Each structure stands twice: as C-alpha cells, then as structure tokens.
Amino acid sequence: MKEQRPRILVIDDEEPNREALSLLLKSANYQVAAAGTGEDALVLLRQAPFEVVVTDLFLPDLSGIDILKWVKSNAPQTSVIVITGQASAETAVQAMKEGALDYITKPFNFEELKIQIAKALEKSALVAENIYLRQQLRGKYKFDNIIGNSAAMQQIFARMERIVQTDSTILILGESGTGKELVAKAIHYNGPRKDKPFVAINCGAIPAELLESELFGHARGAFTGAVADKPGKFEQAHNGTLFLDEIGTMPPHLQMKLLRVLQDQVVERVGSDKRLKLNIRLISATNADLEEEVKNGQFREDLYYRLNVIPIHLPPMRERREDIPLLAHHFLRKYCREMNRTLMTIADIAMLRLQDYDWPGNVRELENIIERTVALTAGDHIEVRDLPANIARLDTPANPFDPGCPRIPAEGLDLGVTLESIERTLIRQALEMGKGVKARAAALLGLNRTTLVEKIKRLKLES
C-alpha cells in the first residue's frame, strides 16, 4: 500500500511568498494546498484534514491567531506554525499561548522551517495516536461491552446510565470476579471526565506501610529511600477518576486520612505540609460486607457513608445463570480470534453444565475456563468431556433408570401406558432441571426443542 504523504496548508496573502513556499514544500515531498485569505483557508480546512498549517500572522480578513484558534477547536491533531514579517513579543506570546507549535519571523531559513515541520508532524502523529487510543478505550468500555440480559444486569445498566454524567461518589459491591473495575471504567469513559486520567489502585495488593505513599505521594527525604518527590494516585487522577479497589482492606489510620481528603478535596504528600487542591471523582469497590465491618469496628462509619453515596451491587454468576450462554459465546469469540482458530461451538449439554455450575470465581473464572477449553480442545466443537471435571460431572449416571429401572409386575402391564407415564415423568424432571427453559430440557433429553414442545402438548403437561 502506498504511503500517504503528509498534507500541509500554506496561508499567505502575498502570492509570490505563497507560491514559493508551496513549491519548496512540494519539492520536499509534501502534499501542499494554499490559500490567500483566512476564509479560503477555513474552506480547505473543513474539506479535508491537514497535518500542519503554516499561516501568516496578518491576513486581509482573519488573522493567523483566528486560524490558530479554529484549528485548536476543530482539528486538535493539526499543528500550526505562525509566520510574520512584523514580529513583536506580544504577538509571539499570544500565538504560543493559543497553542502554536512555533512562531517564525520573516525572512526565514527554509531548512529551519523544515525542521519545525518535522517536529509538527511528529507531534500530530502522537496526538492522532492518543485520540485513536482514547476512542479504542471508549469502545472497549462501552456499556454494551458489559455482557448481560438478565433482569439484575438491566437494572445495573439503568443505574449506570443515570449516574454517568454526575460526579457522585460510587461504591461498587460484589464478589471477586464479578467485573467491578470494568463497571468503574465504563462509568469513567462514558462520562464528562472521559478525556482525563483513570487511575486504579488495589488497596489489598499493597503492603500497609507502602499504601500511604502510593495513595498520597511523598516528599523527598520523607523516609529512607525517598530520594525524590513522588506524586500519589490522588494527584495522578486530578480532573479524572480515582478507582480504589478492595477499599475494605484499608488500614484504620489511612481510612482517617482518606476521609479528610474527601471532605477537604486537598491532599498532602507524606513528609510535606503543602496542601494540593484536587478535583477527582472517586469510585471504590469491595467484596467485603462493609456494613458488617462497620458494626465490628473494622471500618469507619463516617467514611462508609462518604463512599456509599451511590451503591452498585453486582450479582454473582449463580444469580444470573441466564447470562452464562451470552458470556460463554463472547469469550469463545475473543479467544478463538486471539488464537487464530475457527469459531468454535458448544454442545447444548456442555452449555447446560456451564449453567449448572455455581462459579465461585464468577465471570473471571468463566473466562479462564473458556480460554483453557479453546486452547486444549482438538476439534471445533466443545463437548462435555472437554470441560474441567468439576464442571463436566462425567461421573453422573448416564442411565436415568439405573438403579431404579422399572420391573414388569407378575400380572403384566400396558406397555403403551407405562411408556407414556415414564415419558411424562422424564419430561417433568427435565423441565424442573432446566428451570422451565424448554431448550435446556430438550438438550437434557436429547431432543429438538420443537419435538419436546409437541410432546408437552400431546401429554398435556402445560398448565
């Protein structure tokens, strides 16, 4: 594929200067467009993107500063170089303040301009990459990337939609592996702070003696080994979101310091008395019962109420079994793609085993199991035998009549009536095991769903 040459827009009302600069830039292998007025330049800027704009400061209609402001508002990935023959400290300062990459006075050396354009292209590429990565993050953490059609998950989505545009403090509650950080990121990347930092820290993964410095930062010389000033997570999250995972493990003395930070919106580094003003949104999470810990004196009651302004309870997998097929197929697609495999399928009975399992590790455990199964299964179809033994339950008797197989009585029997009675009993059992879902019951009986529905109607099993 042919590499696209960088596009440069030259704006100068003096035609000889405009044409000369355009020719020089074309000879340097750039694509060049030119305009003699500010309005003509804006027409070109609206039509197509440019990596660099080189504009004269004084134009007959608009000024180069006007062009600069428009570019910064509408095409932030485009760099602007301002050129003028009437230089002054005031205009130079204004141009740089408004975001110009450089301010060059006439007459200028073309080689010097080429160096500045190379810098501008490097900066434009970095800005464009940053914008792309942010778009990728927003896509990754869209609400519809949190999988779930269950009533419990729909309630969570509705609550997230209501709170995403607020700055209210949020407490996410749920067992390990339920996706608490995923929800926190979705709230951040869909809210007004989406272009600002999202900073996460697991309070339970850092030793208590180091956690204070990690959260609040430290000043040089605050303790042995503190050879330089270091900002903490609170400072890093300024204007963005701070996510405190496993907040229930925080030591009591840090709970008090955290409470002061939330009340005053200022932070002091360890070993410093300088107070730094903060603007953050706080989201915390825990798998502990904080109310119980408050009662037991393990967690400050005043801090609990500060954190628990808007609670979000994430249900464990065993309480949203209807979401398991959605999640399983989502992870199947993900890992088949990552391992360059044909998209695999799951046998109905294998899916039933996944739905019957209680998933103590929740979504994280399910993802790990699917990844392992994709890696180890030889074919493109996952059977029960391909699942881990504790999920597959291969030791379950295959014959539903063993050991209680019915016997022929001495007086004989009506085979048709007996078989109908057995069929009726098995269908009822399958419906009970499948929690009323006919597709699950049909899979348990080795039938198509339509066949099972016909049998239910014939045997008049529906109420």
Automatic annotation (TrEMBL):
Which keywords does UniProt give here? Activator, ATP-binding, DNA-binding, Nucleotide-binding, Phosphoprotein, Transcription, Transcription regulation
Which parts of the sequence belong to the Response regulatory domain?
Answer: 7-121
GO terms (molecular function) for this protein are: ATP binding; sequence-specific DNA binding
- SUPFAM superfamilies named in the record: CheY-like (SSF52172), Homeodomain-like (SSF46689), P-loop containing nucleoside triphosphate hydrolases (SSF52540)
User: Can you name this protein?
Assistant: Sigma-54-dependent Fis family transcriptional regulator
> What organism is this sequence from?
Trichloromonas acetexigens
Q: Indicate yes or no for the key word S-adenosyl-L-methionine.
A: no
Q: Which residues carry this modification: 4-aspartylphosphate?
A: D56
| InterPro entries, A to Z | AAA+_ATPase, AAA_lid_NorR, CheY-like_superfamily, Homeodomain-like_sf, HTH_Fis, P-loop_NTPase, Sig_transdc_resp-reg_receiver, Sigma_54_int
